[in-house]
Write a structure and sequence with these properties.
heterodimer, A: about 425 residues, alpha/beta, Rossmann fold, 6 helices, B: about 425 residues, Immunoglobulin-like, 2 domains, eight-stranded mixed sheet, 7 helices, Thio_Ohase/aa_AcTrfase (chain B), Thio_Ohase/BAAT_N (chain B), Peroxisomal succinyl-coenzyme A thioesterase-like (chain B), BAAT_C (chain B)
Chain lengths: ~425, ~425
């Protein structure tokens, strides 16, 4: 067994060195930046930085970047450019957001953490030279484990089963009371906890709601959930917002306009539309060359009939729309344009902010997690699996996630923490 | 409902020696607040620190930049909420904060209170709180119990393929198996062994003593994850004396470098190394008590003996040596010892190996940074089992600065000497 690493490639004589790899913080929140540094290597030396993540389903995700050490024998991923790999250029977080399924993986994978209480564990390693494959068979020069958490220490997770509502409430640490958020995921259904856990880590009492258990969910269910949140002793009852993604955005818009119970202080709609899904025309389903399903046309053209879409002209609170311009799943950009037009006509467009990202797709999630351009999708209550095309290209989509998340948090803080009663 | 400020601590989970950023937003402008830290030790005592701030015109407080106007620390002190902690009023006396279970973090509650509060923190609700974890072990560091050949210790192995340089880590006369510094060294890339050397049966002879420590050193050296010729020794207090003795007298081992914190080359018993561990002949006559009946041991080895039999032969040391001392050390005359060590090494011609760091107003217990300072604490004298309050010395702020600076320099020193460097393309020359 070798007792030290020798660089036999560049010189004939044995050159003994051991490099130092450090990542700070080694335990970070999912949306926290980290700094990755290599020291003590020879100068102008080619190295590959590699990230490896095992999902809860046993799939392997990896990312890598090619670097050359500087004259001091150092690499600083936050400042030095990657010359190639799964990302290039100066990308402090590229090793996370460019993670993709390892060669040989099942198709249509999407990375999602089911257990929000334990961290993602990413192994960062350094390899000799510029490698692009076969990482599992190569000797590693150095390696560290990095934890990425959705939950900050002190955040409490509470199961909610009262009033017929199924959900999970995440409470920030501290005496409270806190502004509240109802977090609505998309048509895939289930109880998705990681985003509300992260929102709680930023000071919002956040309720993850499981709402697609029956095919036909009633409006009262959402009103009951809203009341449960409002009445919680640690929630400020008149400082509640809604955050929705995809179908959840439609729910958020519909409830805010038409419900007497649900009166949010602000709404965030990520990749959503105001067009009623009941009007979707299945025969407009398209397929790309890889047989991935494109559903964006199902709701198009945008109806002019007010009964076929949410009358956003009646909205009374600030609305933040997050739009991926390459969304292949829902007609989000067209819907955003129409919503703006409706609100300008109604005189409430001062409430509207639109964040529109070129080459970003449908699944705009918290930053620094892998991008999924197409993935296995099974609508709640159905048994049929498709590979849905979500859209977006890795680098622009990841930039969109980072920017949108920061602006979403600012928007929520401004409307729920800072604004006067 | 009044406006709630937003309190953030980043990173939320850090290593003990990592800086954090504490910030408050959404306060009214020019609003007085108290930032408070609270920690419950493994012994169930409560420790706290606090600083007084006034928000700026935008309603923000940034601890790393703004000056604390009072409390347990003043001035712009990013880490003051940790290093200025002290037991809460009403606590037992003579406490020292030490983490014995390194596999779990220190959990600290940071809170913001309205106004400038100096007491009764637990009787009123804060405006906001955040929780932060402080870890001695980075993720993936392995902890292994060592119980072999009469040696009791714990080895910590860094993550990664290895092999790594090694460090033997020894604490002082308080005894026990103290793991936290070793765990932290492993988090920085060194295989590190914490050693309980005082519960071992008494050594009868000088040679028995040396062979025990040679055995310990070889356990690290021969570990499959350790680079054999890159093993150093780090010792504090009595552990520093052991370090110097090993470096000077052990024949079958040669440490690559040594770090001696608050140590002396003078044998406390004045006679032989073996008797150090029996503490029999320690000249207690020179122990003093201060006005609060706290024990001062610094005079016991003064004046520094001229008789070479009573101290380690510094001329025999062949490896780089880093001394770290506080000039307000009330426990051991470390500054005087360091001067004498330099003199001896100058005479022997090996003083180019010596680096001495002396910190003004730092005391005896120079530990990894951002942990509280104790000017005095409860101590059980090994041989007599007597309970005393030992005066360690040091003033809080200079001592905290010394811990921060010396730790950085200790890590740099260990890296320099133990991590093979690519700039020397020839085999390492012997010093």
């Amino acid at each position: 067994m070798k007792t030290w690493v020798s660089n036999r490639q560049s010189t004939m004589e044995t050159n003994l060195w051991r490099l130092l790899l450090s990542v700070q913080p080694s335990r970070g929140l999912v949306d926290e930046k980290f700094s990755v540094r290599v020291q003590n290597a020879p100068p102008a030396h080619p190295l590959t930085m590699h990230a490896l993540l095992h999902s809860e389903d046993g799939d392997t995700w990896e990312a890598f970047g090619h670097y050359v050490t500087d004259s001091g024998g150092d690499v600083n991923v936050s400042e030095d450019p990657s010359l190639g790999g799964t990302y290039d250029g100066v990308e402090p977080m590229g090793l996370l957001w460019s993670l993709r399924p390892a060669p040989g993986s099942r198709p249509g994978l999407r990375f999602r953490k089911r257990d929000a209480q334990t961290p993602m564990q990413v192994r960062l390693s350094v390899y000799q030279g510029h490698q692009s494959e076969g990482f599992m068979d190569r000797a590693v020069l150095a390696s560290v484990m990095v934890e990425r958490w959705y939950m900050a220490p002190g955040v409490r997770r509470v199961n909610i089963t009262e009033g017929g509502v199924t959900g999970t409430l995440f409470l920030p640490p501290g005496p409270g009371p806190f502004p509240g958020l109802m977090d609505l995921w998309g048509g895939g259904g289930g109880l998705v906890e990681y985003r509300p856990a992260l929102l709680a880590s930023h000071g919002f009492a956040s309720l993850a709601l499981d709402y697609l258990k029956q095919a036909d969910v009633k409006n009262e269910y959402f009103e009951d959930a809203y009341r449960v949140l409002q009445q919680h002793p640690q929630v400020c009852k008149n400082r509640i917002g809604l955050v929705g993604l995809s179908f959840g955005s439609s729910v958020a818009l519909k409830m805010s306009v038409y419900s007497n119970v649900i009166q949010p202080r602000c709404i965030v709609c990520v990749s959503g539309s105001h067009i009623h899904a009941a009007g979707s025309r299945l025969k407009k389903t398209r397929y790309n060359e890889e047989n991935q399903v494109i559903w964006r046309d199902l709701l198009l053209p945008v109806p002019t009939d007010l009964s076929k879409k949410v009358d956003v002209g009646r909205l009374q609170c600030p609305l933040l729309l997050v739009v991926g311009e390459d969304d292949q799943n829902w007609p989000v950009p067209e819907s955003a344009d129409d919503m703006r037009e409706m609100m300008e006509g109604a005189g409430n467009s001062h409430l509207l902010t639109v964040l529109s990202y070129p080459r970003a797709g449908h699944l705009i999630e918290p930053p620094y997690s892998p991008h999924c351009r197409a993935g296995t999708f099974m609508a709640a209550g159905s048994r049929k699996k498709f590979i849905a095309l979500w859209g977006g290209e890795v680098a622009p989509h990841s930039r969109a996630q980072e920017d949108a998340w920061r602006k979403t948090l600012d928007f929520l803080r401004e409307n729920l923490y800072c604004s006067a009663d | 409902v009044t406006v709630t400020p937003i309190l953030s601590v980043l990173p939320t989970r850090g290593l003990v020696d990592e800086k954090f950023k504490v910030a408050l937003e959404n306060l009214p402008p020019r609003f007085p607040v108290t930032l408070h830290s609270l920690h419950q030790s493994e012994d169930k005592d409560y420790w706290e620190a606090f600083g007084y701030y006034v928000s700026d015109d935008r309603g923000r407080v940034t601890v790393s930049q703004d000056a604390s106007l009072g409390g347990t620390y003043t001035g712009a002190e990013p880490m003051g909420l940790l290093w200025s902690m002290r037991p809460v009023p009403g606590s037992r006396t003579g406490l020292r904060l030490r983490k014995m279970d390194v596999q779990s973090p220190m959990v600290v509650l940071i809170s913001a209170y309205k106004g400038h509060v100096f007491e009764g923190f637990r009787e009123q609700p804060p405006m906001a709180s955040a929780v932060t974890e402080r870890w001695y072990m980075a993720p993936g560091v392995q902890r292994i119990d060592i119980r072999e050949r009469g040696v009791k210790g714990t080895i910590f192995i860094p993550q990664g393929p290895g092999p790594f340089p090694g460090v033997l880590d020894m604490w002082g006369g308080g005894g026990g198996l103290v793991e936290y510094r070793s765990a932290l060294l492993a988090s920085h890339g060194f295989v590190s062994m914490a050693l309980d050397y005082l519960s071992f049966e008494t050594f009868k002879t000088h040679n028995e003593c040396l062979s025990y420590f040679e055995k310990v050193f070889s356990i690290i050296q021969q570990h499959p994850q350790v680079i054999k010729d890159r093993v150093g020794i780090c010792g504090l207090s009595l552990g520093a004396t052991v370090t110097l003795t090993m470096a000077a007298y052990c024949k079958s081992i040669s440490p690559r470098c040594c770090v001696c914190i608050s140590g002396s080359h003078v044998f406390p018993s004045g006679v032989s190394f073996a008797e150090v561990f029996q503490f029999k002949e320690m000249d207690m006559g020179k122990a003093r008590l201060d006005e609060q009946k706290r024990v001062i041991w610094r005079d016991m080895i003064l004046p520094i003996p001229t008789d070479p039999q009573r101290k380690v032969a510094m001329g025999r040391i062949k490896c780089p040596l880093l001394l770290v001392n506080g000039d307000d050390d009330q426990n051991w005359a470390t500054v005087e010892s360091a001067e004498d060590m330099a003199k001896m090494m100058r005479a022997a011609g090996n003083d180019h190996l010596l680096t001495t760091l002396t910190y003004h107003d730092a005391g005896h217990l120079i530990e990894p940074p951002y942990t509280p300072h104790f000017r005095a604490s409860n101590f059980i004298v090994q041989h007599s089992k007597q309970k005393v309050v030992m005066l360690w010395g040091g003033q809080t702020k200079p001592h905290a600065d010394a811990q921060e600076d010396s730790w950085e320099k200790i890590l740099a020193f260990l890296r320099q000497h133990l991590y093979p460097c690519p700039s020397s393309s020839l085999p390492q020359a012997k010093l």
